[in-house]
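Figure 6 in text form: structure in, sequence out.
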């Protein structure tokens, strides 16, 4: 299945959230969700690695104190120009299509429990759920 980077990134994070939160969904759906997550994970890790590289390239080290002795990681500065350059590079990466060996699941297979999949999650899984 062809998916853009943004679809892979959002779907992987959404599936991880579903996996790590107790849900009332059928056991077969849990299995399929786990399989989809595993199929998306390698491309997600590649994208995340590129994001980290961009943050180091266009960002700056963040410190917990004013003396800059306690680093907490890297971040993009509040400078609008730096943020625009970073976002342009990141959006270009997310726009690229890739081929993922994943089979979509049916909407009916997810069940109809109010404690199941949330409405917002369906939007991020649009390529992976069919009617």
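Output sequence:
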């Amino acid at each position: 299945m062809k998916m853009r980077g943004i679809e892979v990134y959002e779907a992987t994070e959404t599936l991880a959230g579903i996996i790590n939160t107790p849900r009332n969904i059928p056991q077969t759906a849990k299995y399929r969700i786990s399989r989809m997550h595993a199929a998306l994970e390698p491309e997600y890790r590649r994208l995340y690695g590129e994001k980290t590289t961009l943050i180091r390239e266009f960002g700056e080290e963040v410190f917990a104190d004013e003396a800059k002795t306690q680093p907490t990681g890297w971040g993009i500065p509040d400078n609008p120009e730096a943020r625009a350059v970073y976002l342009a590079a990141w959006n270009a990466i997310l726009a690229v299509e890739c081929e993922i060996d994943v089979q979509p699941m049916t909407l009916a297979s997810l069940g109809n429990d109010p404690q199941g999949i949330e409405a917002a999650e369906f939007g991020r899984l649009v390529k992976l759920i069919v009617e």
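Caption detail: The chain has a mean pLDDT of 92.
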